[in-house]
């Protein structure tokens, strides 16, 4: 089964990676996208495990954000590290999640919607986590599977 790896086309993947790079230029935060086939538990719980597995909790300012998708199970979650939840309002997480759910249900512009959500969260993170002088890229911008 290769559904997760085929969820986005190569062109869409490149657009998503570019959106992550653009968002991260404005902030010291780190943004990742993870796609897998199945989620047999609550998607927030699974996203937390993926977050740890991808070492997102080890960023200097504890300000990583993960967009998690389980394509066959039709589940998604957006989570952030402890530093983010102290700053970013929960309404934003709910709005972005609903925006993605709507795009996926309609199977319409899913990559564009994800890119838009990445840029929105990047702008919000820039308010609380401006880029440092050197602003290192602590985590890969590649989509993980």
Give me some keywords for this one.
145 residues; Diaminopimelate Epimerase, Chain A, domain 1; three-stranded mixed sheet; 5 helices; 3 strands; 14% strand; globular
Q: What does the average pLDDT come to?
A: 91
Order of helices and strands: HEHEEHHH
Overall geometry: globular
User: Using DSSP, what is the number of strands?
Assistant: 3
User: What share of the residues lie within helices?
Assistant: 40-55%
Uncertain stretches of 5 or more adjacent residues: none
- Count of DSSP helices? 5
The Cα radius of gyration reads: 14 Å
Q: Just name the CATH architecture.
A: Roll
- Kindly estimate the percentage of residues that lie in beta strands according to DSSP: 5-15%
Total domain count: 1
First-to-last CA distance? 12 Å
Major sheet strand order: 1-2-3
Q: What structural class results from the helix and strand content?
A: alpha+beta
At CATH level 3, the topology is Diaminopimelate Epimerase, Chain A, domain 1
Return the CATH class. Answer: Alpha Beta
Profile the largest sheet.
3 strands, mixed
